[in-house]
# Entry
Amino acid sequence: MFVLIVGCGRVGSSVARGMLREGHQVSCLDEDPESHARLEVGLEKSWEDLGGQFTVGAGLETEALVAAGIEQADVFIASTDGDNTNIIISQIAQKRYEVPTVIARVLDPLRAEWYRRQGLQTVCPTKVAIDMLESAVRESAGRGGTPPPEPAAEAA
Amino acid sequence: MYIIVVGAGKVGWNLARELLEKEHEVTLIESDRRRYLTVEQELEHNVSYGDASELWVLERAGIQRADMVIAVTGDDEDNMLICQVAREKYLVDQIIARVNNPRNRQHFDLLGVKPSVSATDLILRLLEHEVPEYGLVHLLDLQEEQLEIIEMLLGKDSGLIGRRVGDLSMPEGSLLISVLRSGKGFVPTADTVLEEGDEVLAVLDPGKEDELKALFGPDDNGA
# Structure
């Protein structure tokens, strides 16, 4: 599979390495040339020697998207640090380039939920964190931490 | 009318002031705290602090009852998203988006965010209008209707000077609609004789520009 990842921060670069390790063809696009170094963290060889591709450019620039291979992409991942950027470029990937699988990282749970209902696959790390924190608190209570007050006690 | 304006830069601030003077109800939303405090000194309760790409901020501003949303931030992604959400989630009738980078206009079109306004494009149009060597000026694109309106200046070497409009072989799919002469405009008849310095407006099917240009241009193949 050809995976195109826009936004090569901590999330994007880790996913890129993981997908390359699993034998997929991986291309990354980021505005910041320095983000290339993040791709090679923990790798023995250079990103390119391992078969990876890296392009400098913004996700809204069609030339950059084409150079990064969007026309061949099977999967498009938008993981820049801007929710709006991710939502907009994902729709461009869907509507203009008809990439079969498009996934947007959206930190704001409300926007993530609404766009998900509009047919855009979104991943919301904030929602995941909220769920994990809540269940960690519940577990702690279950293990004998301070129990929640009895409803009866409150009523009295 | 209730109008929400997003982005209190120079454009948004002045726009909000003008709309208020025209007695519209206006909420201007600004996400930068310092800018908000500056603008708030003048516009007071008509300004609201927050990031308008967050849905709850739009809801707090009363987007459900807004007649129009105008997004004029300095960020094209934000303007696209805000207008898209306004129209598709909150069913706002009228949206207007500002395009900061003209190369992004294609994305606004793709997402159906229109009308969109680009200052760069407007200045380029004006420049074309003020610098006559372009010859042919695009005045209006009626994209939905598949028509264009253009303006041409008849230079002194145009082959059409002294000719009757009725004798011109206008390309199929084009029509002369008016002549501007010495600051006045009129609708030409078949007997109108073209003069040097006339500005001619024509309506045409897209793609006919080159044929018209050849007809009106300096070379003498105008018959």
User: Anything to note?
Assistant: The longest strand of chain B covers residues 174-181. The first helix of chain B runs from residue 10 to 21. Chain B touches chain A through 20 residues (CB under 8 Å).
